[in-house]
Amino acid sequence: MKKSLALLWPVLGLFACSGDPGAEDGADGETATGGTSPSGGTSTGGQGGLGGDAATGGQTNTGGTPLATTPGGIAGAPPSTWTEHWFEHVQEMALVDYDDWVAVYADADVNRDQIGWMMPFFHDLWQYTVTHYGQFTDGTRDGRVYMLFHQGRYSGGHPSTYFDASHDYRNVSDVGPGPHAIGSYGIPVHEVAHIVELASRGYHGSPAFGIWGDSKWAEFYTYDIYVGLGMEAEAQQAYDDYIVKSDDFPEGHTTFWFRDWFYPLWRDYGHVEVMANYFRLVAEHWDGGGMNVGEYVHFTSGAAGTDLKALATTAFGWSEAREAEYAQAKLDYPELTY
Hints:
- By secondary structure, the chain is of the alpha/beta class.
- It contains 10 helices and 6 strands.
- It has a 6-stranded mixed sheet, with helices on one face.
- The radius of gyration is 19 Å and the shape is globular.
- The two termini are about 20 Å apart.
């Protein structure tokens, strides 16, 4: 198995979702207030939404995959306090609650009366994530996810993983500025999506980050989490928000990432399993560095079990240079078949 221990960022603590090393993630316009849409966008009715395409009854979309019974790694109680020592963070964080899957910490200003929803939600989220994307531990580290929350300080959020000394080798979503009433799922879920892309199946790094950027994979993950956990209203809102969004990447192309790429992947190629397969193939075969678009489409085709060139052409455009990248990727990674 080929692995990179520092693919795009030498220390994950320097990973900044906004693309500005040392800055915290603005989570693509998301807010941490209760009841807001997952992306901070405006619902426009979408293009069919869940309407028969999405499975919304609990985890039936997984094909009956049994839930993981452990997150792996060391057991035992997390520390009762944890003093932050990254970026400008210097707060002493207090352990609010924990179980085998998740530990929730908050600074002194977070209203404890507002956050009772966190433990059951993040327990289910992390158990679902580990079930499909593998354990996030090398066996000697805590396989939990550590959810950190601030009130009235810091913007957005940032992730870290068990690979990184910067956050004491823990899987971390660190979110501010609050408040964190029920319904404030967007930013912490977004940060957990980054944990997945940066550490799934024992591979450290995200070779496609330069292609899909801060938010696009996170939209797939967020939508699928809501569907997988049976959160129909949240899934529909996420769909409505994401389906109308466009970006000027890759390479200046106007791309409707969710409408033309990630939602068709989710709908037609196994829901969560298509991206679980993608991260597995990366861990097994990718030999380091950032992917070009042709390589990314080749790996995703392998994950889907079908040639996705036509879908990619609709989503990203296609040029002679991209065709050359795609052909070379097939030569470089012939073990990916479809």
